[in-house]
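Ticket #4471: structure export looks truncated?
Reporter: QA, pipeline team
Priority: medium

Steps to reproduce: submit the single chain below to the structure queue and open the exported record.
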Amino acid sequence: MRVRQADNVLSVLEFFAERRSPASVADLAAHFGWPRSSTFNLVSTLIDRGYLYEPRARGAYYPTARWQAMSAAIAEADPLPEPLIRLLDHLAETLGETVWIAVVGGLDVVMLEVRESPQLIRYAARPGMRLPIHVTGSGQALISLMPAGEQDALLRRIRYDRYNRNTPMDAATVRDQIAQAQARGWFMSASAYSSDLGGVALPFTIAGRNFAVTAAGPEARVLPRMAEIAGILRQQITEHCGDDAIQGV
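Actual output as written to the record:
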């Protein structure tokens, strides 16, 4: 269940990240369909706390650097291991598709770090993005690293909604897909969550933490290259994280 006030604050932050220019209370209210009074109160609170300011004194507001300072402090306390940053940069350059590092976040897979493809038609992703864990290659890769009892408990808690034409609709199908991936040597998804998008993923462990690395893009580009992409993922993980990093495939 979402807390509306917290959700609204985060929505405002994401709005400015996309807009990249000042906005008025009226702009925000119109964009989100919020009452003008509620929007004014939210903006006033963010101004009082030092997160918004008025750059031109004309009733338009923009985030201050306080957001960046806080996020940097948080990231410094739990940084992504440096080999993973190098891994992601090399994969992005080599593959030309969107690549990311993900971890388990409850019933979701959470993208910690992302490199978007420079191609015009690409998979659009961002750090912090969450996807249902059972429908994605990265999610199933992470499930494969769990002990059997933990896997069973997770799969019992999932609500098996249909997101797309290839969405797995029960725990048995998810288990079968994981077994097939382990026999094949890599995990995949194809229109399981997002239409006409495919991805290849591998699970690995570094410094006692489980991760999955994924490359994804339009099916027309990715499906014919899946085995090739998997080979590159494996080679790069081994090179940057060690010979024993890859687990279970």
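Status: closed, not a bug. The export was complete when the record was re-opened. Leaving a note from the reviewer for reference: The mean pLDDT is 90.
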